[in-house]
Design a protein that fits this description.
371 residues; alpha/beta; Carbamate kinase; Archaeosine Trna-guanine Transglycosylase, Chain: A, domain 4; 2 domains; five-stranded mixed sheet; 15 strands; 37% helix
Amino acid sequence: MNNNQSTIVVKIGTSSLTKADGTLALSTIAALVETLTNLRRQGCGVVLVTSGAVGVGCARLGLTERPRTMALKQAVAAVGQGRLMRVYDDMFTTLQQPIAQVLLTRSTFGERTSYVNAYNTFKELLRLGVIPIVNENDTVAVEELKFGDNDTLSALVASLIEADWLFLLTDVDRLYSADPRSFPDAQPISLVNRMEELEELQVKTGDRGSQWGTGGMVTKITAARIATSAGVRTAIANGRLPSNIEKILQGEPIGTQFEPQPRTDNARKRWIAHGLVPAGKLYLDNGAIAAICFAGKSLLAAGIAKVEGEFQASDAVGLCDIAGREVARGIVNYSSSELQLIRGHHSAEIPTILGYEGAETIVHRDNLVVS
């Protein structure tokens, strides 16, 4: 790969950015800043997704544990975000590398106009040679519209800007078959060609991060699934050694890499697949699954076995098999209450059942993305 033309998203977790007492690990941040600046000077587009605002805020305020309530967390994040950005700005300025703060919420990805605006902003910043530093806007985010963790945020950003690489820097050097801190015989995994391999290997992943963080290895794998499905090669590596990013780009077998799937050129479908949060689920029979997944057809009412959740027309929904596994995602043409009436019926019956004309399709194939 010609790294001079690569766009790289790097996510670093709270466990790598802070010490055990919650104060910043300045030597690690300095090494990260130097690595990212070197990559920028080599011609790479670089985006940093950083955690740490809540941890830094806790240290600043003398709190001994992570806030449990949303209001306190948002207040602490507001304290920590400014401090965190000041440290980044001081260090990047020493190397004469301009940066920008970009705070995002989940709604940025869910609304088409905001999504396009975010894409254009990132592209312009990268064109100017700026390194955007991204975090979730914790101070204004509401619980139901939160990313949940910055691993997911980084994967969505990588998908948004059509990055070549996503690096997830964490407190272990790679993915293992189980947590090596609890299972000494856990086997290292260097390459994952298909996400299904992890199920075949029966990989055990923890869902808890450090005392100050929110992520665990399960969130890394979820992020890798999002990113690779958008055509982004993903790597998990040790956050205390940021220089490993350059070594991985040069082909050294460090960390765990996830092979990307072919990237779709349809920007709208990428938005549907990775930007939208499903408001409900439609459970489909085998015939409908075959039609949408293998024949490229639209979803019709006759193939819907069950409707779950409350949603309106034009909301996103997950399309699932009977067992509940999501096989596709799409924008629906009917509300959940309408679908409860017409599910299992032929399209020609819809006007009679509802008493008015509606779309023949429940989810048109142009608004549908297979998982």
